[in-house]
Write a structure and sequence with these properties.
This protein is an alpha+beta fold and about 90 residues long. It is built from 3 helices and 4 strands; from the N terminus they run E-H-E-E-H-E-H.
């Protein structure tokens, strides 16, 4: 499954987040794969796409960062797949 992760940096403290990232890496448990990320221009949020088949892996990953980041984990699907499914529903 694919997930959109919305990370909010409390007090806009991106420096602490990137310091830990340089020191320890992303800290993803095996089975949780990073795909891509984008950071807001004001450095207060990061948006990541990640993949995994075991949602509980997010608990371990979030725990490693919870002192620096507030997380929202959203299951997502490619828009083209949703469009096809919706078209198939209209055909019924």
């Amino acid at each position: 499954m694919m997930f959109m992760i919305v990370e909010n940096f409390p007090n806009g403290d991106a420096a602490s987040v990137y310091r830990r990232f340089r020191e320890k890496g992303r800290q993803c448990p095996d089975g949780l794969a990073f795909v891509e990320s984008w950071v807001s221009a004001d450095l207060t949020q990061c948006f990541q796409v990640m993949e995994c088949n075991d949602v509980s892996l997010f608990q371990r990953w979030v725990a490693a960062w919870a002192d620096l980041i507030d997380f929202k984990v959203i299951p997502v699907t490619h828009g083209r797949d949703v469009a096809k499914a919706m078209a198939d529903m209209d055909a019924d």
